[in-house]
């Protein structure tokens, strides 16, 4: 039997054997999400480059972030991952609480995994350069860690109703401070890139060289508040899937209704608090949450209800080692391996060479993850 190495960064992959089949859709959804993070969008870019037309242009646009207000598919990728982290929490933390686990041990467990994931984020953001001028304190993994930490604590301290109340309170509270607290030189409720409260707080608290706005990203301080709500939306979806009261088909329809309702509320709220990813606005949380819930319903229905799993194996391999590919892709150029196999072929492919190249890089990444999968080596999230 092969030796299984598991270094766990969060509870998102702690899957008891009794529910492993149910979690197949979660692994696949996580892998689907990570596929785009790892460079899948470059395949779409290459398709438009090879066959430029109105249809491929519209598709390509969806794989670019909206500059400020609005929503494209690519704006869903980050919050979807945070949502999936939340989905699995009821399958791990709640189950352990119900089985009588020591709460102090669970608190410690959550803090340890938060610290490890935050550390991974710092390493990703140049910690090992040992140069404070290149270190970025906040980032993608750090936000996931923070959302996981607070969502886990809320789960340990409240029931499902309490978790719903906390989620709503976070969204309403964030809306209130963003709209009502005045920013010096701009006033209250100014939702421009420079005039919004989240940007002001980041510039005032974080040293400029460490600030997210220096790098054109969006992982600031107070915008972690709605990100926690994103994770808690996943927690509530996880409770729904875990419930033994409803049939699988009833669960699918419940998710569909919840997702559609979230999208409707997002649209209504956007007239007062626009959908803006860079500040993770409350309407953005509901928009991304609605699409995340609908995707969860689709994956759950196809994979776990209908039992059609073979097609999802590609994504499952990625999803079971999501943090691995995120971290390795930061420090290793998969293109260097791809070039060994394609350097003699690409010159003869003409116009489709860019597409073949991008598919080759993704294939190289996937084969690396497949090797780890076969060896049962997982760096899990």
Describe the structure.
The protein is built from 14 helices and four strands. By secondary structure, it is mainly alpha-helical. The protein has one domain. The strands form two sheets. The protein has a two-stranded parallel ribbon with strand order 1-4. A two-stranded antiparallel ribbon has the order 2-3. A hairpin with a 3-residue loop joins strand 2 and strand 3.
Quick summary of this structure?
The chain is about 65% helix and about 5% strand. It contains 14 helices and four strands.
Strand and helix layout:
Elements: E1 5-8, H1 24-50, H2 54-61, H3 77-98, H4 103-124, H5 140-157, H6 160-180, E2 182-183, E3 187-188, H7 197-205, H8 224-242, H9 248-269, H10 282-305, H11 313-319, H12 322-331, H13 334-342, H14 353-374, E4 377-380
Helix pairs in contact: 1-2, 1-3, 1-10, 1-11, 1-12, 1-14, 3-5, 3-8, 3-10, 4-5, 5-8, 6-8, 8-10, 9-10, 13-14
Key descriptive features of the protein:
381 residues, two-stranded antiparallel sheet, mainly alpha
Count of distinct strands: 4
Choose one word for the global shape.
globular
H/E series? EHHHHHHEEHHHHHHHHE
Strand content: under 5%
As a whole number of angstroms, the C-alpha radius of gyration is 21 Å
* Largest beta-sheet characterization: 2 strands, parallel
- The total of helices stands at 14
Biggest sheet strand order reads 1-4
Please report the distance between the alpha carbons of the first and last residues. Answer: 24 Å
Number of domains: 1
What is the typical, i.e. mean, pLDDT?
88
Based on helices, strands and strand pairing, what is the structural class? mainly alpha
- Looking at how many chains there are and whether they match, the oligomeric state comes to single chain
């Amino acid at each position: 039997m092969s030796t299984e190495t598991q270094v766990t960064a969060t509870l998102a992959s702690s899957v008891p054997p009794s529910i492993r089949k149910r979690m197949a859709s979660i692994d696949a959804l996580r892998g689907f999400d990570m596929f785009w993070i790892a460079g899948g969008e470059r395949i779409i870019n290459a398709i438009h480059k090879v066959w430029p037309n109105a249809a491929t242009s519209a598709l390509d646009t969806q794989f670019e972030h909206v500059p400020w207000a609005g929503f494209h598919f690519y704006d869903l990728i980050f919050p979807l991952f945070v949502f999936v982290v939340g989905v699995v929490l009821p399958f791990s933390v709640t189950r352990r609480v119900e089985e009588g686990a020591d709460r102090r041990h669970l608190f410690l467990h959550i803090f340890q995994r938060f610290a490890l994931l935050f550390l991974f984020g710092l390493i990703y953001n140049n910690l090992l350069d040992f140069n404070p001028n290149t270190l970025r304190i906040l980032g993608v993994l750090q936000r996931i860690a923070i959302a996981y930490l607070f969502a886990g604590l809320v789960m340990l301290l409240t029931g499902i109703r309490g978790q719903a109340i906390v989620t709503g309170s976070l969204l309403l509270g964030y809306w209130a401070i963003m709209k009502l607290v005045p920013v010096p030189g701009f006033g209250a409720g100014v939702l421009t890139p420079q005039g919004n409260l989240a940007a002001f707080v980041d510039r005032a608290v974080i040293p400029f060289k460490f600030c997210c706005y220096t790098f054109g990203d969006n992982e600031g301080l107070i915008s972690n508040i709605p990100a926690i709500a994103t994770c808690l939306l996943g927690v509530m979806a996880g409770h729904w899937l875990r419930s033994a009261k409803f049939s699988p088909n009833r669960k699918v329809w419940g998710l569909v209704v919840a997702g559609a309702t979230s999208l409707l509320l997002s649209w209504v709220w956007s007239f007062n608090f626009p959908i803006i990813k860079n500040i993770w606005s409350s309407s953005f949380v509901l928009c991304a949450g609605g699409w995340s819930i609908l995707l969860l319903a689709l994956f759950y229905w196809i994979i776990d209800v209908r039992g059609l799993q073979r097609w999802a194996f590609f994504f499952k391999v990625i999803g079971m080692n999501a943090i691995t590919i995120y971290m390795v892709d930061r420090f290793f150029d998969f293109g260097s391996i791809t070039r060994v196999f394609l350097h003699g072929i690409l010159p003869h492919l003409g116009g489709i060479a860019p597409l073949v190249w991008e598919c080759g890089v993704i294939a190289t990444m996937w084969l690396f993850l497949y090797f780890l999968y076969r060896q049962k080596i997982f760096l899990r999230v």
